[in-house]
Specification:
Elements: E1 2-5, H1 6-9, H2 18-24, E2 33-37, E3 43-47, H3 49-60, E4 64-68, H4 72-79, E5 83-94, E6 97-108, H5 121-140, H6 144-147, E7 155-158, H7 164-178
Parallel strand pairs: 1-7
Antiparallel strand pairs: 2-3, 4-5, 5-6
Length: 179
């Protein structure tokens, strides 16, 4: 695994700790990656919505929020096509700033046997919202090894910033040089 200094990855000060930055460059545990059939054949890898929530909680200490911003009338209108689509908004607090990511989620509407009545539209809405939350989290860069496999690289993030003791010693050294 390649060691990369934090300041080589983050060109600006973000307020993220080394531990937080490391999470973006660490593979998702294999037991957290699920598979489901893909339309047209094959399989897709994904992580569960509850795991996304767990990672957001651990990274941002509950200083995050997610909301569906699509009005219910719009969600119902798209559901008539057989698919419910919602737009979600994820906000995470980093330092004093709130970072916002928006993305869409979708879910095929499950129909009763008669074919024209939704089986449980509430569950379809929740699934679309969870899909939107996962996509928003991936916009932050989380789970890149699952959702952007071709661009992901694993790295060990190191801090090259001087420690407080090193800073004090550098000041002492400069004072000694000027005397």
């Amino acid at each position: 695994m390649t060691e990369i200094p934090k300041d080589a990855i983050l060109r600006v000060e973000t307020g993220l700790t080394i531990e937080q930055v490391q999470k973006f460059f660490t593979k998702t545990p294999r037991d957290k990656i699920k598979q489901r059939p893909a339309k047209g054949g094959g399989t897709w890898d994904y992580v569960s919505g509850s795991y996304v929530t767990q990672v957001l909680n651990s990274l941002f200490g509950f200083y995050w929020s997610f909301e569906v911003i699509t009005p219910m009338a719009d969600a119902l209108a798209t559901a008539r096509t057989g698919t419910v689509v919602v737009q979600g908004r994820l906000k995470v607090k980093i330092g004093d700033d709130w970072i916002t990511k928006e993305q869409y989620g979708r879910k095929d509407v499950m129909m009763k046997k008669n074919g024209d009545t939704p089986l449980d539209f509430g569950n379809d809405l929740k699934a679309a919202a969870t899909d939107a939350k996962k996509k928003c989290a991936s916009e932050l860069g989380l789970f890149a090894d699952v959702y952007s496999q071709e661009d992901f690289f694993e790295a060990q993030i190191i801090d090259t910033a001087p420690t407080p003791e090193e800073k004090k010693q550098a000041i002492k050294d400069k004072l000694n040089e000027s005397n």
